[in-house]
Write a structure and sequence with these properties.
Arc Repressor Mutant, subunit A, about 150 residues, mainly alpha
């Protein structure tokens, strides 16, 4: 089942249940899918593109959440947290920091990376390998710790 089909089904269920929190999150995803389909590239939306889009939506909300928390706007921060939670449900299972660190150690030993100069090479491999399963910022932080 494609993401779009799943979203449409879940949207109907959320409407029937009058679940405003889920509706807000699902509508955001539906809107992003529509924008992706009509971007003029003519490319078919594959699973990688869907994951990248969902990660982008979550990143936007995390950035907004950070701003709202700094400004003391808890009412808006709550909405962002709720939407992050709903959108996260459609991403693949996330790796824990321990699992991610173990897998990054494997990549570092395979490539023979030894210093911060090799970070770009490691990040390229890691971002491809863990697309949708880990946040880029988290991967970056762990790689920096391992290489320094």
């Amino acid at each position: 089942m494609s993401l779009e089909t799943k979203i449409n089904t879940d949207l109907k269920e959320a409407m029937k249940a009058k679940d405003q929190v889920r509706l807000r999150g699902i509508r955001a995803i539906k809107s992003a899918i529509l924008l992706l389909k009509t971007d003029g590239s003519g490319k078919e939306i594959d699973e990688k593109a869907e994951i990248k889009m969902l990660q982008k939506l979550i990143k936007q909300r995390k950035d907004s959440l950070e701003i709202y928390e700094k400004q003391g706007r808890e009412d808006l921060a709550v909405k962002e947290r709720e939407e992050i939670e709903v959108i996260s449900e459609y991403l693949p299972e996330q790796l824990s920091n321990e699992e991610l660190e173990a897998k990054l150690k494997e990549i570092i030993s395979e490539t023979g990376a030894s210093s911060m100069k090799d970070m770009g090479k490691i990040m390229g491999i890691a971002n491809q390998k863990f697309a949708g399963k880990a946040d880029g910022k988290t991967i970056s932080g762990i790689v920096k710790n391992l290489l320094s």
